[in-house]
Amino acid sequence: MGNRLQPLKKEQLQTIHNASMRILNRVGVSFKEPEAVEIFKRHGFKIDGDKVFFEEDQVLNALKTVPSEFTIQARNPEKSIRLGGDHFAFGPGWAAPFIIDADGTRRTGTLTDHENFCKLVQTSPYLDMVAGSMAIPAEFSPGEAATRMLAACFTLTDRPLVSNPCTRENGQEMADMASIVWGRDPIDLDHPVSIVSVNPLSPLAYGDDTLGGLMEFARMGQALLISSMVLAGITGPIDIPSTAALEMAESLSGIVLAQLINPGVPCVCGGTSCASDMRTGGVNLGGPESLQLVAIATQMAEYYGLPCRYGGNLTDSYSINAQSGIESALLMAAPVFSGAHFIHQSCGILGAYAGVSFEKFVIDEEVCGMVKKAVTPLEVTEESINTDLIERVGIGGSYMMQPETAKQCRTAFFPARLSLKGTYEDWEAKQKGDITGRASDHVKERLGAYVKPDMDPAVERDLMAYVNKKTNP
Asked: Which of 236, 318, 320, 363 could, after both became Cys, cross-link 230 (CB 3.0–4.6 A)?
């Protein structure tokens, strides 16, 4: 029996490809930045105002230079990650405008909130990356907030970076700070030190700020997550195959631009497209249509030989409840099982990106751990299958007191921290299954146990001097 979530045959993949190429060739994509249009023009693309039209061979030739695998290096080399092929990574919640507390209260974020999320990332056994803008500090202007959040990522963690939103200014600032941390311009390093999320304006447009960032990050050799969010029925066709073709056309057009600027710059395709709630005009992230789009996107990425992004612990719910658990777990497991390489927004998101929660962050983190455990290859050999033990215990015996069990009893199975196991009496004594309360306690424990990773004092001094200069001109 095959993978039921990936049903497309080769000819169906070709059909989606043909549809994407037709969209790019006949409708085109609007690039609302003259420099980007000029780059396409220099490379022989058909131009009409700010619209760019693509021939199939132009797209496929550009895709040839995209690496199928690449490394993002961390300040701590042991925590560098690889994306593509058999390698995947989890990044935390990112760019939500509000914090949603355990009691459901919605509030604006602070720098302390962002710093605390950095500490949770640093102490996480399952997350792979830190992110700028995990909680946007409302007490600062947008520019100052971006500077302070990025500095916190570099000083409070030693993980690879999901950069601040894709603008030219944020790209230059990331390069400035990375030059201080690594002692060299990031373009001179062997691998990128960040990945930035580049989001088209569906349908079929890129804004000027986004394009400025795309061009800046591409020139610096930083990885680009070119990820579309088409709302089927509102910003895209109401049927899923057509939405998938539109999503792929938008993503591929940005990847082509990046390769024209800097051939070989790492790019990840994909999106977070979903159905619309046709009653309200809102987002319907948690529907089964999202899983269908995951399946198509991961297969199309494999078709093109590209790394793919999709999914995350995402939900339309504004609180931690059964709905958020169902939706988040499905939207987390499906892309990993389908072969996605970067799962953005893996921890903390509520309300379809409207808010981020500390409690949901650590609950989602446990889901990340479960998923990683589920896809970890098992050693299946004649030696690893212990038939001697089975013969020794025999029919009707117990394995509990066997030495093999005693040796592995603390490490053999996934160490759930927030999910309750045990008797009814245990459950009743522990707040009757109040996972939100246990998560709040766990957040406090983690923050209390946090230890700041080592950083050369001279580097940190120079980094703080840069921050002070930027925020006090």
From this structure: 236
